[in-house]
Sequence to fold (743 residues):
Amino acid sequence: MSEMMWTEKYRPRTLDEIVNQEEIVSRLKHFVKTKDFPHLLFAGPPGTGKTTAILAFARDLFGKYFEENFLELNASDERGIDIIRTRVKDFARTRAIGDVPVKIIALDEADNMTADAQQALRRTMEKYTRTARFCLICNYSSKIIEPIQSRCAVFRFSPLKDEDIAKRLKWIAEQEDVNLTEDGVQAILYVAEGDMRRAINILQAASALGTTVNSETVYKVTGRARPEEVREMINLALSGKFIEARKKLYELLITYGLSGSDIVRQIHREIYNLNIPEEWKVKLAEYTGDIDFRLSEGAHEDIQLSALLAHFALAGTQMRKGDKIG
Amino acid sequence: MSAIPWTEKYAPRRVSEIVRNTEAAMKLLRLVKEWKPGSKGILLYGPPGTGKTVSVYAVANELNYEVIEMNASDTRNVQNVMRIAGSAAMQAPLFAKRGRIVLIDEIDGLSGREDRGGLGAIIKVIKNARVPVVLTANDPWDPRFASLRQYCKLIEYKRLTMWDVVKVLRSICQKEGIIADNEVLKEIAKNAEGDLRSAINDLQALAEGRKRLTKGMLGILARRDREKNIFEVLRMLFSAKTARMATFALSTADVDYEMLMRWISENIPYHMNDVEELAKAYDALSRADVFLGRIKREQNWKLLPYAFELMSAGVALARTKSKFKFVKYSFPSLLRELKSSKEQRDLQKKVGEKIKKRCHTSVTRAINDFLPFIRTIFRSNPEMGAKMARWFRFNEEEIAFITGDSKSSKEIIKLLR
Fold:
């Protein structure tokens, strides 16, 4: 006997099974019918069904020839545009199998590509238009260069409503014989922040502790799962403890394997939860954005993030002195 | 002093004579013998004086090959690499009477400035070589060598023990007819820290022309300080009061600038505890980094002086309040930790790959979004964990890594059998 990750076990297999994002699903169903569709760009927060939608769409479209006609790539793993190009070339060289005009290439986390790589991707997209359609998946469509955006039909995935996630969780709990209490549901919703994948992962991990899942077990597994390391690092920096903050940073980079831009993104999110004067939040966000930009240009993460922490240390002192922002 | 250094006079002529790293040398011999066009290059790595270069010559001697060598004293920019190593490796006659090895020694010594492009040229030589190309390095995990490593088979050379070194020193003394106290040889060996070449050099400096070697003669031996240069550079840089002095300090460094940037970054906070200075110094350093990125991307080497000035003067002159004090400089801790955690990270990556395959996600996301939950499940519910391990096809090593504690991993592995 084997046990799957529930995110996979309960991932909708067909477009009919998807209950959210009605507008998008109905467009995709239309594409299945006409067998004619443009390049696609799916944008939206994590865990809102982007990957699920493209998988279901491809399955509905290709039927038993799904494997032959569908290529899944991940921009943050396939190192460099050259690898992507070769894999796309090998795949798109031949015509689609079965009664369909084109193959589909799904490129996940496309917003992690540099602008240069995207330019190269654009040329690749054009080259294989006769045999393949691309589906780019990203969190922020703004990070996709305009020439690509203009070649794609852009679909925006909105955050899932709490009641939809709650419904799904309860249904899964029923299938798995898990006693999910109401405060358990609320706790999961609170930590998952609209991310279905995270919600289901939490449910599965909590159910490993015992057959009843309540707020206590939920917080137990999430406490272990998502360390508050980033917040701690920021607070160390703001209180002027630079060396300790840097140590935390290295821990995040090495032990947690986070990328520099992951950390920057998390810092950015945390800024607005900090207990500091409002005008400083804007100032810190501005500097964080600067660093984010430099990283996207290929600067070194350890150097840039050290500079960010040093800047936070300075800002912390100025806030405490009540200085005006200079 | 006689004309021949003892390091050469007593260099091993056969693979079996290599001390401590005999097996590594045998492996080299085998790879060279079996090498054919299209095979990878061979990268020998390990601390100085562990027998990397002499192995190559011993192998060549046994096989009656010739060695074409390029080392740190040659400038190794693109033109030179192609001219010397390239022509030796890529234009070797196909049916030569005598085999040939191309040796590119001490690639750590490639400097960022004079040898620019050299690494790329070396890769090109390896890919197109008609004869085996052997490289040596102290630290093959240097990020600069990431792509080079893919084109090479790696052979590790281990540091020699004090007793290995003493044994060699004693046999040299015997051949030279020198009577030496065991204590003295031990002292020389200890001082050499596993570097046989420096030990033999020290021995020659002390003992040549003498018949007897006693402890009293050791005084003239200077303690070897392997990282002296970088420490001096940093001291000079951080104490500089003018822009000119700071940039001069930087120009005397003999490590490449990415490494230098790490050294500076590591040690800024030990010189500046005022947050304003700290922010200013890092601001300068991080902007130097931006310049370096542009230079690399656009190959616009004209911009290099700006990067150097920011990195040196920009950092040094940020110190306006803190007094200059003596700092025991530390090696960049990020690099140290990266090195020591490499095995763990490799495993983590393998686990991430397997999760990725099953869950339609990226390795990074697998590690961040899935792994913590899987870990919780493995630890708190081995039965469920075993079933999941089967689905993911985790092997025992990976299970042990995921759980991080031996009790639950043993339980899971037992359930799987």
